[in-house]
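Milestone M4 deliverable, item 7.
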Amino acid sequence: MINRSVLKYVGLLLVMCVVALGWLFAWSCAVGEKQASLDALVALGEKQPTGISGGSGDGAVILDSFYHTMYYTAASRYREVNGRLPESQLDLQRFLFVQPRLKIEKWTVEDGSLTFCATIRGIDGTTRYPESTICQRGTDAWDKFMEGGKKLMLSSLRERKEKGLDVNYTAEDIREGRWSNYIWDNVRAHSRDAADCEQLMWSHDLAGILAIGAERFEGANGRFPSTHQELIAFLGPVNGEAWIAPATGETASFVDEYDGKNVCYKPSPDLKHFELIVPLFGAGLEQRGEPRGPQWGPHNGYYAGRYFMYTDEMMLVYP
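Output delivered:
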């Protein structure tokens, strides 16, 4: 008979993976740069993090997928900000919001792609070495990646038409790049310039990473963190360099009441829900520019020029 705690863990891990992958790829219309599979997101948990209740180690496993997700998004954002791929893990120092407890076995940049491999140990005692790949814009690898994304967007367009939903773009718009649901295309389309875009990316990533972290905490403890201090204690030491807002050059911190300059985490009294706000410092256009695509707005947590807001109810469907 299968242990009930194992069943609980398996179900929880699947939910957490869906949350993480949904956050990474929902805005990308699942265009899917080669990210870890569900199996690859099983975590090693070399060290039991502070703040995890119980002694099963499930929390450490959940956190490992969090660290893997953070590495992936950090490397992708680094590429967008710097116009090149990170040559080593050290390049990502100011892109990782907490210090990750994850062993990277391989970090290779060649043929227009970054491939990194992490040690992942499952609860059954097995060890895996999943690889994730991020492509450099303007290379053959990038073109191949984008072609895969366009196929998925075309499939989505067909489904929308079959359901009788209104669409204001065509298959040719997708093929020619005039319509896109890729996350970084969406960010650029809502930005005034490169500086505006970098701030928008920073706020977007910090909001998403912390919200996923809160979900991981709930998976390990059966409730959301009672304070922002408890959330950070769970996730690990903060990497202060990564918390410097590009628009201000100042380090953001957690606060109990949103002040327009710092991150605010608010749980519900029963700890069954949360609200997380990350400021934009004036960045972000209300109306989307080119390429055309999904319009951001309050319905998906985007308040142009003000902040990104995540809640637990939004996580699985955001945006």
